[in-house]
What we know:
The protein is α+β, with helices and mostly antiparallel strands. 48% of the residues lie in helices and 12% in strands. The strands form 4 sheets. The chain has a 5-stranded antiparallel beta sheet. Strands 13-12-14-15-16 form a 5-stranded mixed beta sheet. Helix 3 (67-75) packs across helix 4 (79-89). The longest helix is centred in the last third of the chain and has 33 residues, at 528-560. It starts with a helix and ends in a 7-residue tail after the last helix.
Amino acid sequence: MIPASFVEQVLARIDIVDLIERYVPLKKGGANYMACCPFHNEKSPSFSVSPAKQFYHCFGCGAHGTAVGFLMEYAGLSFPDAMKELAGQAGLQIPDDASMPSPADRARSQSLLEIMSIASRHYRDQLKHAPQAIEYLKKRGLTGEIAARFGIGFAPDDWQGLHAAFPKNYDDAALLEAGLVIQNDAGRRYDRFRNRIMFPILDQRGNVIAFGGRVIGAGEPKYLNSPETPLFEKGRELYGLSQARQAIREGGTVVVVEGYMDVVALAQYGFGAAVATLGTATTPTHIQKLFRQAERIVFCFDGDNAGRKAARRALEASLEHLADDKIVRFLFLPQQHDPDSFVREQGLEAFRRALDEATPLTEFLLRELRQDLDLNTAEGRAKLVHDAKEMVPRVAAPVLRLQLIRMLADDSGLAQPEVERALGLKPSHRGRAASQPTPRHNVVSPLRQLLRLLAAHPALCGQLASELVTEFDESLEKSALIALLDAFDDGALQRSSFAAMYERFRESPLEPVFADLLTHLQDDSCSEETAAAMLSDLQIKLRRNAVERAIEALQHAASTRGLSPDENQQLVSLLTQKQKLRPGQSK
């Protein structure tokens, strides 16, 4: 919750070229600086740093961001820590603010991290003297090297085993706060984890923030996780991400599995790009975090009912964070297998082939919608479209959403515009014959053109006709436009660099939109006069689009029920307006 004005101030004082050059050798290439990307392996430079935009972008793996983002991704810092580092370099002090952690809160967090580190060392030491635990890990095919890589340990079957690690402060309240011990109603405390293989859960800086424990032999629950603490929030963290980050970047794919042992076993057999959720369903935060690391997410679940339910929740969590350049797939293993047993029995290559053949998100979504429906009946087809209304409009990737709508049209026997109206969406083809294919080349929408123009020339925000904003369909781009106009009205857009504007929306659904704007900021050679003329033409185009939509609606009504005299007059008026609305003509 660092104030946006302070982020803006820091970024204004930091030169991103100087910052990145401390970690990566840069070479001048035209207006920008180039290097081989530090986030994936490549032989020719595709990593570009723009001093004008104060932004970096890799044309190979898609990594991008500001000085803040670079420190977070390269050095593994949290946002507050990255800001603290940059503020120090800029000679600034992060302001005291009620919404920011106080020095006491920061000291408490550091104390809890130290306690978790001590506990982790203790569990690792205990593993050395626990032959039954070592034997269990060997039976699961793990070597000492992989156990050390993941910091695996053992909690003895002792009610107060941690007393050996904290002989002087086992009764300290911090152990309770860290979730390491439990205190009963009588005030007696005991270890939370007993007779369990211990899996440390790390944050992005490699600090131990929680544990997962797998029971040895009989006992319930089979897996036990740390409770939520000041350090640990289940819905935000993923087991194994710290160890998997490099493999994910190299391959561009991350596999989400259900168990800690699945992650470790896959790493043992040479697949290092797996992570696991922490005893909770996949959350939108997980999706955002993973898409920052990879272009493709594969959810790998058991083929039983529990696995199907987990996949459905992952599907729903993904919808609002999809992009047309990102891929989500679902792999359902045979019911007798989990990833651990599958890779041990059939080998790594068979697992990789299974990943390549995983079910695409669209296919899985439609399969879920079609389940138990008889599409040979009108009722079944109607229910298909009705049920789709819960998910399809939430798909954030516009081209992918259009593909889904077309598939629904095929299944339901309706025309595409009819499906769109049933889903509460405006028809996506403006006056285009339904049989005419949509061009597949990369066409920039009028709204995206408008956003790029206003980002490069903020002063033009005041010349945009407000009524045009309402003409756009609800989308992330429309939300970004409203955010730009709000910032302009508040005076923030005029005084800030656009890199600071991007940081306002870090880890929000709007972040990809602002990343695109930073990447495509127009050259300074475009004068304000030229930009104003472009805006004028664009507004005419938008008004023409609105008129065409109204004409299309009336023409559809004319073909189905006929028009009233007033509607006929309105249609004539709209056709006249359409002829007048041409770029270069007066408004």
